[in-house]
């Protein structure tokens, strides 16, 4: 059987010997030092650095977020005491008068932006005194906060709090307004809220807007979207703009057009402003010294009254105005909107039109067409119920825009209708246009004479009469003209009929000729006013100008009757034979 090797029982480790020697040496050294009394002396305290000539300046002890209220512990730590300050040379501090030197200037103020620890404070780090905490505190007075998705407007997420910009939308082709506006063509500048806006084809949604903050569901920053970007394991930037909301400050009147543009999915562009310019400086300079003139914001048709809504921008309700240099102001332009509202247009106008007095109908004018013999109604007139022409009867057709006079109307008290046009010494007769040649060319109020033409067969008429040889050779069929009516008046034309006013003693003659199917001719007369203008010697009221009927062909024939031998004999002779 094999035997196992075992170490000698008396063997002692060498390392234990070394440790024992070291302990003995330390004990000997301690004894010598203690015997000498060196351990009884007090150790000297650490000396504070000299701060002679230095000034304490408060600093941020922790990272501060925008729109939060600064607390005491954010700037002063009791445990640190004076170490809560930067101790800086007095000369350096005096060269920066904007630095706050007292803690009470900081505590309770609302931060205007994010601020990292170990930075001093100045007024620009805070919102105005009295501002509320939270994001609404960052909205300037006179502005409104507006939240929108960061992905809706490219580049907006990269702006920092306080950066200013404009928002513009390009309009679809089908919704572009006319390319020319009267106010622009005359050298005016279109403005909204006292600020210039672009020309047609581009809609200004927000002007001089201000960036407030960029937020997600968990965090908020005033330093732009780069603060929210993360990186993946390969170092690539990872960001989901769909989760980001941008808070901006805009004018109250801009909220509606901006909301409408976002709802219509218009392409919106951001134009940043220089951070070195004073806000609104350029806008104010462009309009400074110019005179605003009101204009239409929509098209208005002729004979329509101007309403307040016609002068207001459809999306904002603001008065449409164009700003002009004093030298460009045209004579007669109406500068006050209150002088336009309620006035009735003489002609139609397009958007952007600037008015003159001659663009409106004067008092006593018609705004509707009125037919002859129709009574003037309240809503036919510019003045409405205030007009003295209400209830009067039109003596002829009157077009819209006519400025009325007594010559256009029948005397007061005349009843409306066809009878109003019939003079007191006349009677009306209705005839078919086809029965009277030439009457279809006449209009209401025209005057004419009526003549009937008939072929007279004397041989047929004198059948059975023994004629003398001389008379027999003259008897032939011939036309005879007869005057039926003189100075007849066309009272009305409607469809295929015409109403003629004739003297009472002429009515029977006209009716008889029409019944006998005789050819009736209409001979037009000049209007009395035209006759009067030719020469004072002509009597404009005359009803006869020498027009006479042809003589009756039987009037020159004498008829005798005799009885010879019981026979009755009728003979005809030419008178004078």
Q: Could you please describe the fold and organization of this structure?
A:
It contains 9 helices and 23 strands. Among the domains are: 55-125, Type Iii Antifreeze Protein Isoform Hplc 12, CATH 3.90.1210; 139-172 and 180-227 and 242-274, no CATH class; 365-418, no CATH class; 423-524, no CATH class. 13% of the residues lie in helices and 23% in strands. By secondary structure, it is of the alpha+beta class. It has helices at 14-36, 90-94, 182-185, 255-263, 281-287, 458-461, 469-472, 504-515, 528-534; strands at 54-58, 85-89, 144-149, 164-170, 189-192, 195-196, 202-215, 220-221, 230-231, 237-238, 245-250, 268-272, 291-294, 321-324, 427-432, 436-437, 447-456, 466-467, 478-494, 497-502, 519-524, 557-564, 567-574. Strands 3, 4, 7, 8, 11 and 12 form a 6-stranded antiparallel β-sheet that branches. The protein has a 6-stranded mixed β-sheet with strand order 15-20-19-17-21-16. It has a 4-stranded antiparallel β-sheet with strand order 6-5-14-13, covered by helices on one side.
What is the overall shape? rod-shaped
What fraction of the residues are assigned to beta strands by DSSP?
Answer: 15-25%
State the low-pLDDT regions, or none: 1-12, 530-544
Major sheet description: 6 strands, antiparallel
Structural class: alpha+beta
Rounded radius of gyration (Å): 55 Å
Total number of helical segments?
9
What is the helical fraction, as a range of percent? 10-25%
Average pLDDT over all residues? 80
Compute the separation of the termini in Å.
206 Å
Total strand segments: 23
């Amino acid at each position: 059987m094999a035997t196992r090797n075992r170490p000698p029982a008396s063997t002692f480790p060498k390392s234990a010997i070394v440790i024992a020697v070291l302990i003995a040496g330390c004990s000997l050294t301690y004894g010598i030092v203690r015997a000498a009394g060196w351990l009884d002396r007090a150790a000297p305290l650490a000396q504070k650095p000299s701060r002679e000539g230095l000034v304490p300046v408060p600093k941020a002890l922790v990272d501060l977020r925008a729109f939060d209220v600064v607390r005491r512990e954010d700037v002063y730590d009791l445990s640190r005491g004076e170490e809560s300050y930067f101790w800086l040379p007095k000369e350096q501090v005096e060269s920066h008068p904007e630095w706050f030197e007292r803690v009470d200037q900081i505590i309770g103020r609302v931060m205007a932006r994010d601020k990292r620890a170990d930075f001093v404070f100045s007024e620009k780090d805070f919102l105005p005194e009295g501002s509320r905490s939270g994001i609404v505190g960052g909205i300037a007075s006179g502005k409104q906060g507006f939240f929108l998705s960061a992905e809706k407007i490219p580049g907006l997420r990269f702006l920092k709090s306080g950066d200013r910009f404009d928002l513009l939308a390009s309009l679809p082709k089908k919704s572009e307004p006319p390319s020319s506006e009267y106010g622009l063509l005359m050298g005016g500048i279109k403005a909204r809220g006292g600020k210039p806006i672009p020309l047609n084809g581009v809609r200004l949604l927000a002007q001089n807007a201000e960036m407030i903050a960029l937020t997600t569901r968990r965090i908020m920053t005033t330093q732009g979207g780069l603060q929210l970007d993360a990186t993946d394991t390969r170092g690539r930037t990872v960001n989901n703009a769909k989760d980001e909301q941008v808070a901006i400050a805009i004018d109250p009147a801009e909220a509606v057009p901006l909301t409408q543009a976002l709802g219509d999915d218009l392409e919106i562009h951001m134009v940043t402003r220089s951070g070195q310019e004073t806000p609104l400086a350029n806008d104010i300079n462009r309009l400074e010294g110019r005179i605003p003139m009101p204009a239409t914001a929509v098209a208005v048709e002729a004979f329509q009254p101007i309403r307040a809504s016609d002068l207001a921008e459809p999306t904002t309700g603001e008065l449409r105005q164009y700003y002009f240099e004093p030298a460009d102001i045209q004579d007669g332009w109406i500068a006050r909107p209150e002088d336009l509202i309620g006035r009735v247009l003489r002609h139609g106008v397009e958007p952007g039109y600037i008015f003159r007095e001659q663009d409106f109908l004067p008092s006593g004018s018609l705004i509707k067409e009125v037919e002859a013999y129709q009574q003037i109604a309240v809503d036919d007139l510019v003045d409405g119920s205030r007009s003295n022409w209400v209830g009067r009867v039109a003596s002829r057709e009157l077009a819209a825009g006519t400025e009325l006079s007594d010559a256009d109307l029948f005397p007061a008290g005349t009843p409306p209708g066809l009878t109003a046009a019939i003079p007191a010494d006349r009677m009306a007769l209705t005839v078919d246009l086809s029965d009277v040649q030439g009457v279809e060319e006449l209009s209401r109020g025209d005057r004419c004479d009526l003549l009937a033409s008939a072929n007279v067969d004397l041989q047929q008429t004198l059948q059975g009469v023994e004629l003398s040889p001389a008379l027999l050779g003259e008897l032939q069929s011939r036309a005879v003209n007869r005057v039926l009516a003189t100075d007849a008046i066309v009272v009305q034309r409607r469809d295929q009929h015409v109403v003629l006013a004739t003297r009472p003693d002429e009515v029977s003659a006209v009716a008889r000729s029409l019944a006998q199917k005789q050819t009736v001719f209409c001979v037009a007369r000049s209007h009395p006013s035209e006759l009067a203008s030719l020469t004072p010697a002509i009597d404009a009221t005359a009803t006869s100008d020498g027009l006479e009927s042809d003589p009756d062909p039987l009037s020159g024939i004498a008829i005798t009757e005799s009885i010879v031998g019981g026979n009755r004999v009728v003979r005809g002779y030419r008178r004078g034979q």
